[in-house]
DNA sequence: CTGTTAGCGCTTTCAT
DNA sequence: ATGAAAGCGCTAACAG
């Protein structure tokens, strides 16, 4: 039963010939089996096996206007914050026969625009952005393209199309409120420089009611940058009592640096992160953080895109998934 | 609130008409500018702007047999080990106009086969696997497809096509050799259950010259699993002196659990990881590990695929990038 | 340098 | 339930 080594690619035409049916019947047997007779279906199926046929989705997509691809855009793959979202998105899409094409913007609006143009060229059936679309020209182009777009990990009154996320301002406010309830006065912020992290800082400052010492570190955040940020903050504010970090990764660095300096946590210094990373509950001390449903965002984004592909109107184009402050040992 | 939605999509035909040239001239002006006159090129360019034309790569790819897409296959996006490779791969490809389509196998050969079939359907110009192709049927299918394939993060005498990585057996052996040189007798292994991690364990055991207590944890590895693994090992081997971990994430968990139990590192317990994660040099104590050039693997894989797309034969279809043991505080 | 002629492999009409 | 025709939007060939 060794299959013939076919140098020439096997097309549907070959399958049809092998099955003794017309091209279009073979096509239907594969993509719409309910509409052909049981016998024909079986014959075609057998011909597929015999020839080793693999469909050409490029050709199908050209005619049917469905590429079965969805573009997923992130600042960078190394921003681990978005991985659970991407993973859930990819899994949910794959279950329906859709594949994810990846794009990286490097937090640069120009690159974002370029990436989106390239993506549109590939006729994806949907586009999922982590974060809002920055460039106004890109927004315009996306609207014109008619492609379903879901912006995620943020909220907007006027999304390009749909948005699922939460308010970063409120997150910052919630952490500040928590700090205030603890009576901590000498507080600082260790944050990445991206717009969402800066918005959380803004919310924090607003609720605190005054400016606070801040260390801004470049993306992507890392344990090492967390250490450096704490060092910077302690210089600015020697008696620092609590730090609000823009990620758990940064928070873990703050933890390490604090321990290295002999500071006890939380007695000498309280630390709060963001994102509820997989390690945060298991470090010693465990990290107080803001939990966000990353996989939920990805799954919901997939559902919204797929519904739109089926021609359904979204019940809700703007979805606020909220967040939850998780109190752990680093502040308790 | 609705922008002027162009209902009909702008095609190259429209651009050509607007520029007053033939369809094919417009095509050339965009994809092969050197071959048309400067004046024509400018006219077409202007028509592109005026019409808001975005090329349809699906259509172009169908005819030209170049989809400008490369498939990247990982066990799961959450396996952070492969992220630097994926990121570098995507970046290197994007620089040449190629995009990455993502596939996840969940460490399952059946899913691997399914994912690869789906990918082949999309006519990618190359396929990059993290790890070797497991399923023999998938191997066969890939060979038949004629698509350039690079397997990574491992080595093989008989790759499907090309391979760039290193020997996991040798990694295990190197760590064991290091442990032996330190005179540690009561040693253990904390490892993920995937085939590459198990191969490193094999290499470790072979060089040690005897079986060693082992805790196997499910993928993906995490700090929490590292803690659990150390607990398990300490039960199996109460006087444990050194642990070889299959990832730095696991090692960081072992560190935390050891500290929680009042064990001093490295005096009471030495710990070695694998992968040289970004945090490993900055924890306290810093983690001894095996460094692998993840981005290098991705960049090289991209280069090999792109060279093949240009019709070049690869100078070396099998590339051993090696590894490097990095001694840090957790064993020194 | 530019244009004409043919398709790429498949799926949508429309017919039977 | 099946088939024939007609392209999807673009580019490789060959002309001119």
Descriptive report:
Two copies of one chain form a homodimer. In chain A, strand 8, helix 11 (248-260) and strand 9 (270-272) form a beta-alpha-beta unit. Chain A has 332 residues and is an alpha/beta fold. The first copy, chain A, has three domains: 12-55, no CATH class; 66-166 and 294-322, Response regulator (Rossmann fold, 3-Layer(aba) Sandwich); 169-291, Rossmann fold (3-Layer(aba) Sandwich). The first copy, chain A, contains twelve helices and twelve strands. In chain A, the strands form three sheets. The first copy, chain A, has a six-stranded parallel sheet. At the A-B interface, helix 4, helix 5, strand 2, helix 6 and helix 7 of A face helix 4, helix 5, strand 2, helix 6 and helix 7 of B. Strand 2 (99-104) of chain A pairs antiparallel with strand 2 of chain B. Chain A binds a DNA duplex (16 and 16 nucleotides) through helix 2 and helix 4. Chains A, B: This is LacI family DNA-binding transcriptional regulator. Chains A, B: GO terms for molecular function: DNA binding. Chains A, B: Residues 10-64 form the HTH lacI-type domain. Chains A, B: It comes from Variovorax defluvii.
CATH-defined topology of the largest domain in chain A: Rossmann fold
Give the count of helical stretches of chain A. Answer: 12
Question: Please, what is the average pLDDT of chain A?
Answer: 94
Strand order of the largest sheet of chain A: 2-1-3-4-5-11
Helix content of chain A: 40-55%
Radius of gyration of chain A (CA) equals 26 Å
**Unreliable stretches covering 5 or more consecutive residues of chain A:** 1-6
Task: Report the portion of residues of chain A in β strands.
Answer: 15-25%
In terms of quaternary structure, what is this? homodimer
What's the main sheet of chain A like?
Answer: 6 strands, parallel
Molecular shape of chain A: elongated
Based on the coordinates given, report the CATH architecture of the largest domain in chain A.
3-Layer(aba) Sandwich
What CATH first level of the largest domain in chain A would be assigned? Alpha Beta
